[in-house]
């Protein structure tokens, strides 16, 4: 990250295509493996996962809400640049909205392997039930995807038209066209920010409205999900910006990384505050429907994950980003972002697994597991320590590779760099 | 496959007479009373439920929880060994949370209050399983396996990837018969009837013996009522 990272305009002309091809081939292989694993799962049912009746959601749902969160970076960066005049973010706005589009698409894709009957997924459109948070979520994920995709197009359209690309959909480069772009960007920013807030809130309510789960049933879920989304979304945004700059597809000064790092520090602080506030409120009674799961998180089978989340995911990146001198160092900001991105994943994992890892009616023999057990084995469980099966890991790998593939190709095809033309157009306004 | 036969129908006519429902009111709300004073934890109701409803291996619509230390093991309370049982199946809540969260209305309350599950519509998202406070829903994680190579009971088997649960044996209710767990209980610990009729046996028992609902504070308002044991039973002095 030496010379390339500090220069605003890295050389791109004589770059070899070979590393890119190797990368694409690896992603395609990962996607093929994932597809194979999914076909295997379709043939044998969800029994090939490690989910069972006492622990009915696992890695897939965790990744679903994690990717919903990762999509936050995009529209927040794009919309706040527009609505609150944070013009410094301009060089990465296109990258941000592309990230949002791909992330929310992946979130939706993670639901497919999770449901038992993907062949009946159309039932969601045929028989939607308005009281189900899952139906609300489906609607907002669709809306958010459409807004993000439109965002990407509006921001890159003029440059595509200048190139004569068919992706410009026949639009031109006249001043009238560019004025319409600016109007559209304003509308999208106005619609995009509330849509982003709704997206994270509704995803939170899938969990936060569960009266049976003391760890989830809390009004803080929606604010907490928005904050987690901001932390992981901004963290991923920083990492992607650095990678894509290295590949020569965008250019910006290091100050931008420090600026985003400063935002990230604030988000991490709010996240830590909300987690603490929630845990204190729940744990204070000492023994209750709400406090038992918190005690389990602090001392039970998932406690190592929780302390990892607090130390590696919140404390260390916050310190790295809060100290001004360190925040000026691009390498340290990248490390802090990576830790925050991993930390929020572990946070999501804790939320799902600890929320489910106990029987709500806690008497032996417990809950029936739901699959035929070998002779002499108990078919009941009071709690279950869940870890994903190989099939779950491979399916997840496949979806991740698909996302990386889409992102890489889009980053190659679309003009992500802010051009002199587009800058001039927005200054005219 | 041969004609399906209910394990109860196969018995002599006297068994039908024994399983007859009390005449219900014009608009019945079906409910059950479980007398923990009488339950001996024998699992008869669980076993007949499996054959009546063709429930695959590893899955139980109905189970017996031990209020004690471990399965069929007493706990020590005030120097005495104590234990009783709590038969547990779908509570057929008046205010069910599972039906509220289902994204496709594959689970829904019937007119008479029975909470149904439509295996043909279910997409297998397991939201209802997460939502249910009682842990009584069971999911077909893999292809259903049965100890026999034929189906048993009077109910269509459910396919892989869908949810299933206790239905109060609706196929028997429509035939004027009590659910098979009620019929089969050797201690007559289960009583079934119309909660809308204030003079039905269930209504009277709930009144006279202060019937309790499980996890009442969750607000689901179950239509299964437990009559707690009247005296502590145990070994010791």
Task: Explain what the structure shows.
The complex is a heterodimer of chains A (429) and B (237). Chain A is an all-alpha fold and 429 residues long. Chain A folds into two domains: 56-209 and 393-429, no CATH class; 217-356. Chain A is built from 16 helices and two strands. Chain A has helices at 3-6, 18-44, 59-70, 72-83, 93-114, 123-126, 133-163, 175-208, 221-246, 254-283, 291-299, 303-322, 324-327, 330-356, 390-413, 420-428, and strands at residues 367-368, 380-381. The radius of gyration of chain A is 23 Å and the shape is globular. Chain A starts with a helix and ends with a helix. Mean pLDDT of chain A is 90; it is low at 1-11 and 424-429. Chain B has 237 residues and is an alpha+beta fold. Chain B has a domain at 40-189: Alpha-Beta Plaits. Chain B is 18% helix and 17% strand. Chain B is built from seven helices and eleven strands. Chain B has helices at 13-18, 44-53, 97-101, 127-131, 170-173, 180-184, 201-208, and strands spanning 30-35, 63-67, 75-77, 80-82, 84-88, 107-109, 115-117, 138-139, 163-164, 190-194, 224-227. In chain B, the strands form five sheets. Chain B has a three-stranded mixed beta sheet with strand order 10-1-11. Chain B has a two-stranded antiparallel sheet with strand order 2-5. Chain B is globular. The relative contact order of chain B is 0.26.
